[in-house]
Amino acid sequence: MWDWNTLFIEGQDISAENAATLDVISPANGKIVGRVGAASAQDVDRAVVAARCAFESGPWPAMSGAQRGALLLKLAELVEREAQALGDMDAHSIGRPAIETQMLDLPNAIATFRYYAGWADKLEGRVVPTAGYFGRQTHSFVTREPVGVIGMIVPWNTPLMILAWKLAPALAVGCTCVIKPAEQTPFSALRLAQLVREAGFPDGVVNVVPGLGGIAGSALSEHPDVDKISFTGSPETGAVIMRAATGNFKRVALELGGKSPQILCEDADLDAAVQGCAMGLFFNQGQVCAAGTRILVHRSLVARFTEAFAAAAGAVTVGDPTSGQVQMGSLAGKGQFERVDRYVQGGLAAGARMVTGGAFAQDQGYFYRPTVFDSVTDDMAIVSEEIFGPVGCIIPFDSDEEAIARANGTKYGLAATLWTKDVSRALGLAKQVRAGAVSVNGWATIDPALPWGGFKTSGIGRELGISGIEACTEEKVTTLVL
Ligand code: ADP
């Protein structure tokens, strides 16, 4: 049990106001996983003051990019040293098999810190030719400066990885931050902050305020001294945060939901597509914003694909995530379970056919089997709305035009996958899909060097890649009249 009872402000592990705490309960067995401090609005204010002071004065603003890069490399090394423990914290808190965090979350987070360490001393500007000023010549140049104090509001599904996407570029360019981890997964953020201290970052550069979204998250997104909010989570909460940010016109970056298509053309490698679709739908119990939940299959392949996919789904072992014997653990909590089951029951009531799946009875825990529907129509909620669980639909199509129309027939636009052996067809279809990331013959091919974010209601802005640097900086023009 991680019995910590603290927040992390100005380099210190400190108690919240009135020693308030928050319990984290495992959704897999109902046992307490640990306890952290629960920040009040007052605590959030203390953290923002610390971040503001660290941004304005002290050693941080005076540091060179090369020095910040060296600190980020050191942090990557420390995260690598603690990878097992950090991954276990996140896995146990939401009932995931720990192997998943070691396969994806931790390697990706470490690579992200290393990637942005490389950017820290490469923030170059540019000289722009101009027409002059009332007959006198001018010399103008554009530089990038840190946006300031960034509030980072993080979800529970892949917490450390998503936190690294926000934190690494912010530190590379010289911002400071206040992190609000999700109620379910506060431990890895607090431990990461201790590693930030151990790496040698100045106090106040990174602060962590665990607590309730409606209190700590809300205080952070409303705070007048926060320059930017970077949020990943549900569209409903994203809308609340965007409204709260208007008080001082904070910059807002939102990574929200998805209803991502996987398109299987008639020339697809069927075995690879079955495996890829299973990973795209069931990884992390389907609680992934880029989950490939709408599987569009060319009619000539539907019968074979459905049989093979149902077999792959049925072969996934579900149960105690700590046993080391299962591929899928529990959903993240009661609310998640009820949400997923409501969609599944709604799908059945609307006339869809459940090929395989359904709730998985255990004495305790919120387990759900990999669930696949066919005989669906586009107006069913299971086809049009984000479920955030291991539930997908098989949808036949007859032509590439129809596949694209149906793939784009959603309010979301985060990711898409194409399965085809024909390069021209792949590029032609990729161009037409309205999504931030298109993968061909592989699902959600993320990399720290590639921008990540959504079209349409999947969000605003991009993380990762050079876009992550741009998102943490403001452009400044300086003109000399000669
Ligand atoms: P979920 O409903 O699955 O918990 P959310 O999008 O609500 O997903 O949560 C993502 C993050 O947003 C969490 O850190 C949560 O505490 C935070 N959050 C929730 N409500 C608010 C709010 N009103 N203002 C700011 N942050 C919030």
Description:
The chain is of the alpha/beta class and 482 residues long. It is globular, with a radius of gyration of 23 Å. The strands form six sheets. A seven-stranded mixed β-sheet has the order 15-16-17-14-13-19-20, sandwiched between helices. Strands 10-9-8-11-12-22 form a six-stranded mixed β-sheet, with helices on both faces. A three-stranded mixed β-sheet has the order 1-5-4, with helices on one face. Strand 15 (353-359) and strand 16 (368-374) form a beta hairpin. Helix 1 runs parallel beside helix 8 (213-222). The longest helix is centred in the first third of the chain and has 22 residues, at 98-119. The model has no long low-confidence stretch (mean pLDDT 97). The chain has 16 helices and 23 strands. It folds into two domains: 2-256, Aldehyde Dehydrogenase, Chain A, domain 1; 261-447, Aldehyde Dehydrogenase, Chain A, domain 2. It has helices at residues 41-56, 59-62, 65-81, 83-94, 98-119, 159-173, 187-199, 213-222, 235-244, 270-282, 302-314, 334-349, 381-384, 400-408, 423-432, 465-471, and strands at 2-3, 7-9, 12-14, 21-25, 32-37, 126-128, 138-146, 149-153, 176-180, 206-208, 228-232, 251-255, 261-264, 294-298, 353-359, 368-374, 391-397, 412-413, 415-419, 437-440, 455-456, 459-460, 473-481. It is 40% helix and 22% strand. The termini are far apart. Bound molecules: adenosine-5'-diphosphate (ADP). Adenosine-5'-diphosphate is lined by residues 153-155, 180, 182-183, 213-214, 217-218, 221, 233-234, 237, 240-241.
